[in-house]
Amino acid sequence: MPLQDLTPQLRTRLNKVERGVGWFVFLAAALLLFGFGYYIYHTAENKGWFKTKAKFKTYLLTSTGLKVGDPVLLMGSPVGEITKVAPMPPGDVHNVLVEFEVAVPDFRYIRSRGSLVKINTSVLGQSQFEVTRGSNDSFAMCLTQPISHKTIDELKQLVVAEPGQWQLSQFVFDAQSNVVFAPYQPYDGGLTLTNLELLATLNLESNSIYAFNNQSKSRKHIVATWHEDLKRYDFYNHEKDSPVELAALDSVPVAERLEKILNQVETALPNILVITNKLFTVLDRAAEATSNLNIAVTAAQPMLTNFTFISENLRAPGGLSVWALGTNGDAQIQTALTNVNQLIVGVNTNLDELTREIGFTLENVAAITSNLNVQVRANSNMLGGISKTVMDADDLMQGLKRHWLLRSAFKTKPTNSPPTKAR
């Protein structure tokens, strides 16, 4: 039905419905666009698109297992990704250039000392790109604080206007090359007029120095990098300057290491086969020796049985005497011990009797000697007579020895006396 044929009431109601449908479509489209935009923002935030990133580069011997988009690991966690893998031109001293990015705040662990690039290659040929953490006594390679090259007078004005915010970004040496200040000093409260007066006495080049305001930061790009040869931070332009270079600790690829191992195995294989043949010979001989040993054990089984029987008999009470003397040995030993005991008792009794008889004899001898002593004292000439009798008897014996009839009875046998030495 044409719209002009509708009544005014129907036309009014139809216009309201059309406006409601239009608003619904508009709101649905707006919600759809908002959701899609939030999804893109959330995805970009998760991927670190809005984070400040520091660009680095390194040179490797080979790019095996590496490709653009691979994660960069720091202390085992992903902190960035590889952005470029390209071979160097012919004649260059390096082989492969690898550029990568590390997001804030993780790039602050990459320092002037101790930070290296390591390639960890697995057995399957997959490589992990890792950056090691630098030492705490060194300086971060990249800064987001803009540095300034100011004269001492300009810094005095800034220190007065912005107290506690300015710090040094370079080493300061005296005339004897001793360190007076290091970067980030003074640590407590920043530069002061007293520090600046001390710096003015050191006769610095152009009477100026590099410093930075610790309250100002660049939220998009790296603005300063550390230069070890200059002993200070220098300006950095992320669009013109090349990425910060890190040294690489190259390792031999796993494929090459496996090839070397296989070559060594192939070289050693003949010797291994010879050793295997010798081992088989030894095993055969060992089997033969084991068979002979089995036969010897079988032959020794009766002996072991007898030994077991003997040991059981010896362990019984009195078993040793029964085994050595027979079954009657114990009774014979008991009889012998009884006889010995009786003999000892008899000897003891006879010894006591003999002792008593000797005592009686000694008493008789004592009585005889006592009587003799009495007689000798009573007759003083008795000893002289006895002595004369003994001397006369000796003369008689000597005369008998010299008599021709009795001389042979007193001959003495010659002895083996030692020969006399001639004079």
Could you outline the blueprint of secondary structure elements for this entry?
Layout: H1 8-46, E1 53-60, E2 71-74, E3 77-87, E4 96-103, E5 117-121, E6 127-131, E7 142-143, E8 147-151, H2 152-161, E9 166-168, E10 172-173, E11 179-181, H3 193-200, E12 208-213, E13 224-227, E14 232-235, E15 244-245, E16 248-249, H4 254-299, H5 301-315, H6 319-325, H7 329-378, H8 382-402
Parallel strand pairs: 1-15, 2-6, 5-16
Antiparallel strand pairs: 1-4, 2-3, 3-4, 5-6, 7-13, 8-12, 9-12, 10-11, 13-14
Helix pairs in contact: 2-3
Overall body shape? elongated
User: What is the overall pLDDT average?
Assistant: 79
What's the order of the H and E elements?
HEEEEEEEEHEEEHEEEEEHHHHH
- According to DSSP, the number of beta strands is 16
Distance between the termini: 188 Å
| Main sheet record | 8 strands, mixed
Describe the structure.
The protein has about 425 residues and is an alpha+beta fold. The protein contains eight helices and 16 strands. The chain has helices at about 10-45, 150-160, 195-200, 255-300, 300-315, 320-325, 330-380, 380-400; strands spanning about 55-60, 70-75, 75-85, 95-105, 115-120, 125-130, 140-145, 145-150, 165-170, 170-175, 180, 210-215, 225, 230-235, 245, 250. The strands form four sheets. Strands 15-1-4-3-2-6-5-16 form an eight-stranded mixed β-sheet, with no helix packed on it. The protein has a three-stranded antiparallel β-sheet with strand order 7-13-14, with no helix packed on it. A hairpin with a 2-residue loop joins strand 2 and strand 3 (about 75-85). The longest helix is centred in the last third of the chain and has 50 residues, at about 330-380. The mean pLDDT is about 80.
